[in-house]
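Consortium newsletter contribution from the modelling node. Members have asked for a concrete example of what our holo predictions look like. Here is one, prepared for the uridine-5'-diphosphate-xylopyranose complex that several groups have been discussing at recent meetings.
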Amino acid sequence: MKMTVIGAGYVGLTSAAVYAQLGHTVYLVRRNEQKLQELKEGRIDFFEPGLEELVRQGMESGKLIPTLEYHEPVRSSDVVMICVGTPPMADGSADLSQVFEVAESLAPLLHGYTVVVNKSTVPVGTGERVEQIITSLLSPGSTIDVASCPEFLREGTALEDLRAPDRIVIGTDSIRARAVLLELHRALPGKRVVTDRRSAELIKYSSNAFLATKISFINEIANLCDEVGANIDDVAYGMGLDPRIGSAFLKAGIGYGGSCFPKDTQALHSIALQYDYEFKLLKAVIEVNQAQRRQFIRKIKKTLGEVRGKTIGVLGLAFKPSTDDIRESASIDIVRWLRDQGARIMAYDPQAEQKALAALPGLQVCPSASETFTNVDAVLLLTEWPEFRTLPWGMLKERMNQPIILDGRNVLDPQQMRQMGYTYYSVGRP
Ligand code: UDX
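And here is the predicted structure:
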């Protein structure tokens, strides 16, 4: 099939590369000339394992065609996919201006029958508004259906998630659009959830909100474990063995971050309010997540006392491993607070250094994880990069002013750390 993907950000670029790999001809619209040139040269401005290679293969095979100009691609495509950003506004609701601008600009170009797919995470009812905008500007003789096909990809494993999805959600009442979208995804595994557009839009928000709820729930249980002297690892394991609960997303720590959970939980809460419904549980989930960072800061204060004048090593700045994304990163928040309090930070992240420096100008970054131990009063582990597990912990202790580790991700074994002579604290483990 022939398709145009509008928006070459995270979702747009990864999706376009995978659709091209499936054999579709994919025009990928990048409206910034310099960024387009970089893309054509195989340079991508974020880190995602395997993506550069897949994009290069797609371009070499002629299936993936980055373009600035999209008149002809849109005109000749069976499917046009909107993948632009929906950043949060001050009140937490999603800013849909880019979605509507795209709808306006592509409407007059559409020709014959086209399925317009919203892949951006958008509030319930956005599909209808997009349809109204396009229909009012459509050239005579052309027809469209607007469908919602949310994605569920995770940063760091986006390509796997797109190539082996658990489910493919197709939200449209149109039989014709359903047939087109089932065909577009024919080569992919996963259950098909064929539903109406509003339900599809809500599936995306509800999924993210539920996962965020699991995380906030387990974090509260971890805080309780700290109080009562129980072990969150065992509690989460014991809970997760019940298939009705499931073991995924029960990892306690310093809370969730990233470009999705914080934004989407806020947006869903705000959508509910627009319908005069107070989503109390979700409000608590959001509050617990914010409080979890403060809880860890309290632990730092309790352990170190006054942080002013202290030197603190930080392992991990990204919001999670396998990405350079620092959006809503708990680590960045904690580092910012420590700096504001007068601590000196020596940080290391395998991928997020540049982005962290942009967010925290003047941050002292180290060329390796080991360097963050040199003459510091404590080391904080804030992102669970796998390489941190296998550091030569026994030796690194000797570099520190005092051997204190605060593990915000429960990565290390408390008993082993203490045996090595560390004063070791984590979240919800005695
Ligand atoms: C998430 C959803 O998983 C994905 O389906 C959706 O499309 C986009 O949002 P992502 O933000 O890439 O993906 O990361 P994810 O792996 O879900 O982790 C989000 C945050 O939750 C991270 O900060 C992570 O550290 C935290 N997390 C996750 C926990 O604190 N505990 C857990 O058990 C799992």
